[in-house]
Fold:
Amino acid sequence: MRSRSIIWSFNHAIDGLVYALRTQRNMRIHVAAGAAVLAASLFFRVGRAEFLAVLLTVAVVIAAELVNTAIEATVDVATDGYDPVAKVAKDVAAAAVFVSAVVALVVGYVVFFGRLTDTAHTLLVRVREAPSHVSVVALGITAFLVLVLKAVSGQAGTWMRGGWPSGHVALATGGATAIGFITGSGAAWVIGLFIAGLVAQSRVESEAHTVWQALWGGVVGVVVTAAIFALFWS
Structure:
């Protein structure tokens, strides 16, 4: 009887894994990425300790996604409509997956970067020194800073709508500033800012943001992007 219960436990576990793979897009992405990383471990012939680190990291990411799926299903059963506490539960569970994925990227970098061929290494260096790379870094930092400011300000809203400052306007003005630095043309920067102004206008007219939230978003985008280009690109 005990052996039967153990077998049924395994069956339920497999059912849960299959359900997550069928219904959760992120789960399929994590599994595919994990399989690719494990295959790369064999290709590059990493050491036993490094392979175990990669395997454990992949397992943690997949386990975090499974827990996130379970929490989402439980919250959906327990609540009929919108509940702020339920939202917190889902957001925190998603944050756990995000943290595990970031750690996985760091582990992958440490394990595999040194094993890249000279050609691949040269290509990565060129990409790192390219203006497009600096632009991506600047816009990424801008997006992160906007998230931090939204969290600190305490104003109602999300990344996609509402809150201080406007993320859409920050990225639009950041992109315009990047274009100005790359081209070295003041006219190109002005045209980019004009387009960013249209983005700001649309956010205000749709009542997603106030005028001040849009203006501050523009300030954040310009200042952060200009600072990154001034420090890391010449």
The chain has two domains: 2-115, 127-232. The longest helix spans residues 48-78.
